[in-house]
Specification:
The chain is mostly helical. The protein has one domain: Hypothetical protein af1432, CATH 1.10.3210. About 70% of the residues lie in helices and about 0% in strands. The protein contains 11 helices and no strands. Helix 10 crosses helix 11. The N and C termini lie far apart (about 40 Å).
Length: about 190
């Protein structure tokens, strides 16, 4: 797969700021893929494509999902921004014929999910910890992610849940399921 062509396509779809974030996720995903011995090309492709639908309007996201028969739950209907991962995965599948594992990592990079693959985990963490992000405890989470990916995911989800509660936003069940599964695994 021609990575430079994909990067150029994505660059043309996104604002400068969003594309800078995408390059940061790509860099971080490659670092984590090396540490956890995950296919680097798959991590790179998922990272580059993860936000390709991020800047569609809410209505464009809802229209795309309907026109392409993507499953949309009630929370996604109320918060269409959450659809950008599903839409990006669908667009990438149709345009670049990417593998299911890469589609999954793109689909769940925002919420996580139960039974996350290592690639899912890497893209989820890379999105939250890339070099352009700024939030409290970020450096500690970056360090943690290089030692224990599951602990980093739990920490990120906890942060996201708290932030969404403070803002009065809905919580997606996928995040809760991912967190609970990782906590149960930790207790064993």
């Amino acid at each position: 797969m021609e990575i430079e062509k994909i990067k150029n396509d994505v660059k043309n779809m996104l604002s400068k700021e969003r594309y800078t974030h995408t390059l940061g996720v790509e860099k971080r995903a490659l670092e984590l893929a090396k540490i956890y011995e995950v296919n680097e090309e798959a991590a790179q492709i998922a990272a580059i494509l993860h936000d390709m639908a991020k800047e569609l309007t809410k209505q464009e996201k809802l229209n795309y999902a309907k026109e392409n028969q993507l499953e949309v739950d009630e929370i996604e209907k109320s918060s269409p921004g959450l659809l950008h991962g599903k839409i990006a995965a669908d667009m990438a599948k149709k345009k670049y014929h990417i593998a299911e594992e890469v589609q999954s990592a793109i689909t769940y990079h925002t919420t996580g999910r139960q039974n996350m693959s290592m690639l899912d985990k890497i893209i989820f963490v890379a999105d939250a910890t890339e070099e352009n992000r700024e939030y409290a405890d970020l450096e500690e989470i970056r360090e943690l992610s290089e030692k224990n990916l599951n602990e980093a995911i739990i920490t990120i989800i906890n942060f996201n849940i708290q932030e969404n509660i403070e803002k009065g936003k809905l919580l997606h069940p996928n995040s809760i399921l991912a967190r609970n599964q990782l906590l149960i695994e930790k207790m064993k």
